[in-house]
Amino acid sequence: MGIEEEHPMKRWIIKIVFVMVICNIMPLSSVEGKSDSFWKFGKDKKQARVMAVFVDMSGSTNKARRTVYRNAFDKIMENLQDGDRIVIGTITGRSFIDFKPAVDVELPKQSIWVNRITYEQNQAKAKKKINNAVEYLLSTKRGTSHTEIINSLNIADRIFHNEKKRQKILVILSDMIQDSREYRFDRIKVSDTFTEKIIKKRKKQDLIPNLQTVKVYVAGASAANTKKFRSIEKFWKRYFAACGANFSKHRYGHTLLEFENET
Prior knowledge:
This protein is of the alpha/beta class. It has helices at 8-25, 31-40, 62-66, 68-79, 95-98, 116-139, 149-161, 192-204, 226-243; strands at residues 49-56, 85-91, 103-106, 167-173, 215-219, 252-253.
């Protein structure tokens, strides 16, 4: 006796029920939304990042804030991707004591449960919040009298401390001329001996931040002459090394030529 062949109508009923179930479990507002959600699903995803961007607000960087820093932020904004967290703060004479982020935002992730319209609206809101904070900082005309870059790195340590999964990136927009009550790089000889003394002192005080795996970019670096520029760059190279940071001379300069485009 032969096996009874399945009725064609039965197969169609099964297919219709399957489609109805899929539609019901996906809270999408439109056919377009459904297709967008499927479009997102399975796309190649890059590792999310946490970026700390510190902006030097000293009087000596007034011009740089309108030019070099703005250009750097343009590159950073163009590079933002889903799941990235960006924390923007200032470098002043009281950074370590009074630090408060100008903005701390995480970009929404794509999801099969969120349609394209909602996703893009959330993205726009997040980026607008970032842009508003950036515009406020860069349009500030009155600079601070001191620049506590060294202590600002301890703030970066705090930001990155609980970030276990995201890639860590630190962007410093500054002339990198420490100008505090303790050290004034523009008035002293920034030698190897001087650098060793600072590192040794801060290690003894347990003030060397932990920047392990943190990738560092510097834009806005400046000095009175080439010799001074090189000596200050060398100081930071050694200080970042003491912090365990991922630092390269190719990511240190007056302009942020490349941002996360390394091959």
